[in-house]
């Protein structure tokens, strides 16, 4: 074999060494590929408890190594509205519940301004495990976690969803449209209507979006009044 033809093997060897340095003892693969190989069970069809257990045990992306708890809502019964956030913060990670830290006060004020409460919603996140502090989850985590959010929608069948932050549009539109171009107009996903707007944590850092969020919340309330 020529030196040139050996080059791809060297690259693969270096990649294996790199994975080993990250602590992998086997090659990570896309969850869809593992399902195809029969190495992963398909998600439960209609069972919330099994879904929660699957998320609890999930190791489908590298975030399982640094999370304290995956963040899951257990209170789905009777909920007709869904609220989707971006990813867990430190408190969410600690308690294993979405919007459980200081930001829930801001969220509650936003919702109360249109006569709703956080408790009216099934609350979930686009990515269930906390990334390294100060960073957003990468594409690998977003892709690996997307199946859980879509399954939650399939099980809950909410008529109306309020989606907060930059990650939910990436789940539904795979990055084809930015939040600034999507926000404030209803987006149809199967039987569900989704309204995208900015996350309250982003608003606290960028007060200029407060007015835009208020406009979007008024649109959400109008959709709510029309539907319920
Ligand atoms: S972020 Fe999602 S895909 Fe990744 S380990 Fe957590 S639950 Fe699994």
From TrEMBL:
GO molecular function: 4 iron, 4 sulfur cluster binding; metal ion binding; uracil DNA N-glycosylase activity
CDD domains, alphabetized: UDG-F4_TTUDGA_SPO1dp_like (cd10030)
The entry's keywords: 4Fe-4S, DNA damage, DNA repair, Hydrolase, Iron, Iron-sulfur, Metal-binding
Protein name listed in UniProt: Type-4 uracil-DNA glycosylase
SMART domains: UDG, UreE_C
Keyword field contains Iron-sulfur: yes
Catalytic activity: Hydrolyzes single-stranded DNA or mismatched double-stranded DNA and polynucleotides, releasing free uracil
SUPFAM superfamilies associated with the record: Uracil-DNA glycosylase-like
PANTHER family: TYPE-4 URACIL-DNA GLYCOSYLASE, TYPE-5 URACIL-DNA GLYCOSYLASE
Domain of life: Bacteria
InterPro entries: UDG_Type-4/5, Ura-DNA_glyco_family4, Uracil-DNA_glycosylase-like, Uracil-DNA_glycosylase-like_sf
Documented EC number(s): 3.2.2.27
Keyword field contains Iron-sulfur: yes
The protein's enzyme class: hydrolase
Family: Belongs to the uracil-DNA glycosylase (UDG) superfamily. Type 4 (UDGa) family.
GO biological process, one term: DNA repair
Residue span(s) of domain Uracil-DNA glycosylase-like: 72-218
